[in-house]
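Q: I'm building a small set of examples for a reading group on sequence design. Run inverse folding on the following structure and report the sequence directly after it, with nothing in between.
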């Protein structure tokens, strides 16, 4: 059985959910940007509404339609007459905007308006399932609105009679002179519209930014974009609870890490063991293209899972510029120099290795950062350390510096049998990861596969981990600055 390339269908089923959850998280993380955009656009909408607002005045007439020439109220009509009147009301609406009636109203209203103006000023509506019609005249001048409405009262009857003989349209509420402008609803409409458009635009921008960002967005991208095999998918674990004062990282030995997190590492362990049995792998490097992708957590948990399976495992912290394995395990390694102490000749490998009864794991760790990591790792003594460890342990798991930032991982690859690459979802660019893979290819050491880390699909909870570590690699790192200050004092 090929443990490295699961059937494509397995990941196709979770692809859309995984990507959708990633987009959702991005939107939640950027809620403040969405809210800010929505508020700004809402304010702009309000400003536009106020700047473009013109006071309008309306004068309204209420009519009632009847299919009886002499009818004045609905009370005297039969059921069939009332139904006919309702139908007539809809027909009468179109008579009010005919050119003939509009011309008559324009000529008799007493103001300089054209029939086309009359058609624009007038709106006609009927009350549903009744014979009542409302004619509303709206202009910027209350007198003009009232004059046009009165002109309709004087001229409508002849137009209605000519269009619909033996029918009646009676005024039951005459027009009045408008005393105040119409209520301004444009400010509310424009403000709400601006808020919605602003929020939508921000969401669209965030999603498009993620789409066009050339990162690894789902587990299928591991194969499609990087061309390497997938070892396993580790779900994202939320932020550590403030009440939890534990200083260690997230470990499979802690049930609070979540069932999914623990089982995913056991699956990865199984694949590594099968590959190791076929290819005689013992020394395994765990690295990533960039910092903060979870390589130390992955390396530690791979070592723990192998130890749980009864294997003799040595976990080496070879990230000399920023050692963090001891912190992840919750160890106090204040006086330990790890690899540096052995290379310098201060201690032997046997003296430097510690055994943890709690984890049933051998560790070679240090809390002291160094600047010349490449020189230390490329020394002949480092190769001797690895070769000596091969004789004593079933597996040697080495946590290295990010392979996309320093040459340390590539140097160690020459002493190792295989490499596990950790890729965090939507973090490092595919181009940068490919360059890191090329560096390993030059060493001649095979990459056994990739761990797709921090995936939104299958998030584990409750959580213990989520703190961001800052490497600060390079000569401008904070740790280097502190050491320089201490030397000058």
């Amino acid at each position: 059985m090929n443990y490295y390339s699961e059937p494509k269908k397995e990941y196709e089923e979770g692809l859309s959910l995984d990507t959708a959850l990633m987009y959702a998280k991005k939107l939640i993380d950027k809620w403040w940007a969405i809210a800010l955009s929505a508020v700004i656009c809402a304010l702009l909408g309000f400003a536009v509404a106020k700047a473009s607002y013109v006071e309008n005045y309306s004068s309204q007439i209420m009519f009632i339609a009847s299919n009886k020439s002499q009818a004045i109220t609905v009370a005297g009509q039969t059921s069939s007459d009332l139904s006919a009147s309702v139908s007539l009301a809809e027909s009468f609406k179109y008579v009010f905007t005919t050119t003939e009636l509009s011309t008559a109203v324009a000529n008799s209203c007493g103001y300089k308006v054209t029939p086309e103006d009359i058609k624009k000023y007038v709106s006609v509506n009927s009350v549903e399932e009744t014979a009542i019609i409302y004619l509303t005249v709206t202009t910027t001048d209350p007198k003009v609105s009232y004059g046009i409405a009165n002109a309709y009262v004087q001229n409508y009857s002849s137009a209605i009679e000519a269009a619909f003989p033996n029918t009646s349209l009676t005024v039951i509420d005459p027009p009045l002179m408008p005393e105040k402008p119409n209520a301004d609803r444009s400010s509310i409409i424009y403000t709400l519209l601006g808020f919605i458009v602003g929020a939508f635009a921000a969401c669209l921008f965030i999603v498009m930014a993620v789409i066009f960002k050339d990162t690894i967005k789902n587990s299928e991208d591991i194969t499609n974009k990087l061309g390497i095999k997938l070892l396993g998918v580790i779900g994202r674990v939320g932020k550590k609870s403030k009440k939890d004062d534990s200083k260690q990282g997230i470990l499979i030995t802690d049930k609070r890490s979540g069932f999914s997190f623990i089982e995913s590492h056991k699956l990865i362990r199984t694949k590594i063991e099968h590959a190791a049995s076929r290819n005689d792998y013992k020394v395994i490097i765990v690295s990533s293209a960039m910092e903060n992708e979870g390589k130390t957590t992955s390396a530690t948990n791979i070592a723990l899972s192998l130890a749980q399976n009864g294997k003799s495992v040595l976990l080496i912290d070879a990230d000399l510029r920023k050692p963090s394995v001891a912190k992840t395990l919750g160890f106090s390694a204040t006086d330990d120099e790890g690899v540096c102490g052995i290379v310098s000749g201060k201690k032997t490998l046997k003296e430097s290795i510690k055994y943890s009864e709690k984890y049933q794991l051998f560790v070679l760790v240090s809390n002291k950062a160094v600047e010349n990591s490449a020189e230390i790792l490329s020394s002949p003594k480092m190769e001797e350390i690895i070769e000596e460890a091969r004789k004593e342990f079933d597996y040697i798991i080495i946590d290295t510096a990010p392979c996309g930032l320093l040459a340390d991982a590539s140097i160690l690859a020459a002493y190792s049998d295989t490499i596990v690459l950790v890729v965090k979802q939507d973090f490092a660019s595919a181009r940068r990861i490919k360059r890191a893979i090329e560096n390993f290819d030059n060493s001649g050491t095979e990459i056994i596969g990739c761990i797709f880390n921090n995936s939104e699909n299958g998030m584990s909870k409750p959580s213990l981990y989520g703190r961001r570590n800052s490497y600060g690699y390079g000569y401008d790192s904070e740790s280097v600055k502190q050491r320089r200050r201490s030397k000058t004092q």
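The chain is about 45% helix and 15% strand.
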